[in-house]
Each structure stands twice: as C-alpha cells, then as structure tokens.
Amino acid sequence: MLRAVVVLLALVLTACSADPPPDAAAAAAPVSGVAPQELPGGYGSTAADGEFPRDVVHFGGTTTLPAEPQRVVVISTGQLDGVLSLGVVPVGATQASGAGLVPAYLADAFPDADLTSVGSVGLRLEPDLEAIAALQPDLVLVNTVGAEPIGAALSGIAPTVVTEGTGVNWQQDLLLVAAALGRTAAAQDLLQDLLDDAAQVGAGFGDATASVVRVSGDRTRIWGTGSFVGSILAAGDVARPADQRFTGTSQDLSDEELQRAAGDRLFYGVQAGAEDATALASPLWTGLPAIADGTAVRVDDEAWFLNAGPAAARVVLDQLAG
Asked: What GO cellular-component annotations does this UniProt entry give (predicted)?
C-alpha cells in the first residue's frame, strides 16, 4: 500500500524541479581525468551558509529546501561519507552489495557519532522506497545513475538533490551536498586540507610511479586517472605507470596481463572474500617487483574502491604516505 502511495505522490508532485540544470555540458569531468574541484557554473546555492529557505541547483534541476535538513537519507556512493564529514548523521542510508551499512573506515573516523541510529534503506542500486518514506526524510541525496529509475518517486517523498556521482567527481559532489545542508564553508575547508596534504604526500614519491590494483572474485582491475583514487594521485602529481594513465575508472586484466599492474610502488585492494582469488597466486602476480620484494601495500578496500568522500580520501592519503 505504501509503495502505491509513494508512486502516486511521485506522479502528483513529479520531481522537485523539472527545469534542466544550467551548463550541463560543464558538469562532465575534464578530459584529463583530473577531478573537478568546484561546481559547474550556476550549480549549488546562492544562499549564505545556514540560511533557509534556499534553492539548490543540482544535476536533476532545482530543489527548494524550506528549512535546514534534520532527517537526511543518502542513497549513493560517497554520500554517507560526505554528510558525516560535514557533521550530519543521516537517518537512513543504503549499502554496497556484500558490504555493511557503515564501512569500518567511517566507524573509525567518527567514533563519537551515533552510527547505530542510521537505518538501512536497501542496496545502493536497489533502494527500498517504502523504507525511505517510513523514515520521513526532509532531504534525500542520490546521484544521477540512482536517480534515473526512481528520481521522481524520491522527489515525491522529500526534497531531493542529485549529485553527479562516480568517484572522480567526489569533490564537486561534496560541495553540492554542502550546498543542500548549508555548510559550504566547511566543505571547502575539508577539501583544501586534503588537497594540501595530497601535494605533500605526492612530493614524497619523487619520480616513482604508483600502481593501483583491485582484486575482486574473478576480476582483477587496474585503476585509471578518472577514478576516485586516480584523482587523489593526480592532486599529488604522482606519476602513474604508462598502462594506468587512461582517463576511465578501471580496466580489467586477464591473468596474462598482470604485468600491467607493475609500478615502482604497488597499492592493491582485495574484496572481502576474495583472498583466495586465482590472480593472487599467479606467478605473474607474485613475480611483480613490488610483490616479490615485499614492498606492495594492501589497502583498505572499502575506502579506496567502494566509497568516495573526504574520510575515504584521508584513508587513501594516509596509506599512500605510509
């Protein structure tokens, strides 16, 4: 019954805004693959921090927030990280398939936050509309991919703000979330601190190249400049192996192509449960210089590859520095 009500609300109210966002072409990540560090022209809000009501221009149109959000639901990758980093504990969140509701790195980063109060609203790619509506949110955050099938329904439940999504856009997406929460200055300070630290960490690499690999079940992938991790390496001006300078997020490797994972420094993640993956036992893997000499670093899989936000970026920088 509740699902029917949600759908009916969506049809009656439609999206919070039907107007197309301005400068849509400017929203794409640069061809270089370096993450956009500010919002496209016209996006966000012109209201001062803490000032409500406010209009927020986002990747789904324009949404009016009548008051400071108190009951936030986050749907998409990186948004739980983003709101917690801005001092807001959401009432609901989705989770990645096979992962917990609150990643361990976030529990470590925010030990004083009441994360047990966050309710589950399904999987990131399969959010539960009834569970979302039951939480009576006053703001829903979702990215463009998640908004395609259910954006109108979400807007029928509560004011909805759509971020672009994908890891490389994490900085501009944080600024858009901050615009909805009225906390832009805090987001700008967070990002500047991270960029300053990225430059310092990157200087420690000198001319050494950094290779990034993830092993998940029967897939082994190298990660390019157009990924969350790639954007952090780019911010630190860290060189990448020739095979990892592509502007996409990742490329699959066959067992015969594992040499493409070579780099002066190798950082690799292993999906939970994939510790016995065939690739990790392959002579082509164990023969990689960084694996053979024991200098390769196994990293936090959830922070590096499953999430994108300031707290995840801090984990990445700490492990790059270490």
From this structure: outer membrane-bounded periplasmic space
